[in-house]
Amino acid sequence: MHAWLCETTDGPEALVWKETPTPEPGEGEVRIAVKAASLNFPDILITQGKYQFKPPLPFVPGAEYAGIVDKVGPGVSHLQPGMPVAAIAGTGGFGTHACVKAAQVLPLPPGFKLEDAAAFAFTYGTSHHALIDRGALQAGETVLVLGAAGGVGTAAIQIAKAAGARVIAAASTDEKCETCRALGADATINYGREKLRDALAALTGGKGPDLVYDPIGGDLAEQAFRSIAWRGRYLVIGFAAGGIPALPFNLPLLKGASVVGVFWGDFVKREPGNSARALAELSQWYAEGKVKPVIDELLPISELPRAYRRMAGREVRGKLVMTLD
């Protein structure tokens, strides 16, 4: 097999494409012939040694991928060679083959495209857990989605609309705002040239959003929280802007508001039954056309370095997906 190997924590630039021994599945594992793998922001952090999960070197990055089961290890009965599947394994996707625990593999229903499956579970699972589970979103509420044109942001727009919410999508350019409107956002804010608080006040009649979905952090966080509605919920998804904001504790007090942490990876591990039910609902929504991954570009795996550069430069709308023959 061949794979992009991370041999140091010097970032994506240090990845090297190498031939390595094809792994054999162990007890409770399957081997997947990878056909598509998507790039997520944690795939940058993990190559820099900055992600919560730090695999031993060397490793193959690529947390999310889809392909065909080509070998089954001992103790696995519900998966068989030839089955199309998706996997969330933390690593392994940026190679031609990957061995993964069977519990981390999702059999795909008929009609689920492998390219879509490779761009689905991570972002849609995160956004469903955030909005529906942690945020207790109700029909008729208003959701502000920050970084709305990115992978988790585009998923959040679709899920919030499927739940009957009003969505205000905030992004950094007019082009990204146009993408959000095409996905069903009711209103958009270009925070590259508009003042976030003024725009939110105008769009909500001064009430503010009931939920704030924030995968960005940085300077926008306090501005958004100061605009939140009474009893609002602020969903902390991540810190793509690089800075981890410090929030004055008097702000949640004055708004009767909650700061809610969202860590989908641990949710999957700690609550596998709830996670499986959420993914089943999302798969049904996909079949019904309510949600569909926004794929910015399909690239051959050889162009992974360019994909990393595009993501680091915040140029991506939706997801970048690598394809393998």
UniProtKB/TrEMBL annotation:
Enoyl reductase (ER) domain boundaries: 11-322
InterPro entries with a match to the protein in the record: ADH-like_C (IPR013149), ADH-like_N (IPR013154), ER (IPR020843), GroES-like_sf (IPR011032), NAD(P)-bd_dom_sf (IPR036291), Quin_OxRdtase/zeta-crystal_CS (IPR002364), Zn-ADH-like_protein (IPR051397)
CDD domains according to UniProt: QOR1
Pfam families tied to this protein: ADH_N, ADH_zinc_N
SMART domains, A to Z: PKS_ER
SUPFAM superfamilies: GroES-like, NAD(P)-binding Rossmann-fold domains
PANTHER family: QUINONE OXIDOREDUCTASE-LIKE PROTEIN 2, SHORT-CHAIN DEHYDROGENASE/REDUCTASE
The protein's name in its UniProt record: NADPH:quinone oxidoreductase family protein
Species in which this protein is naturally found: Ideonella azotifigens
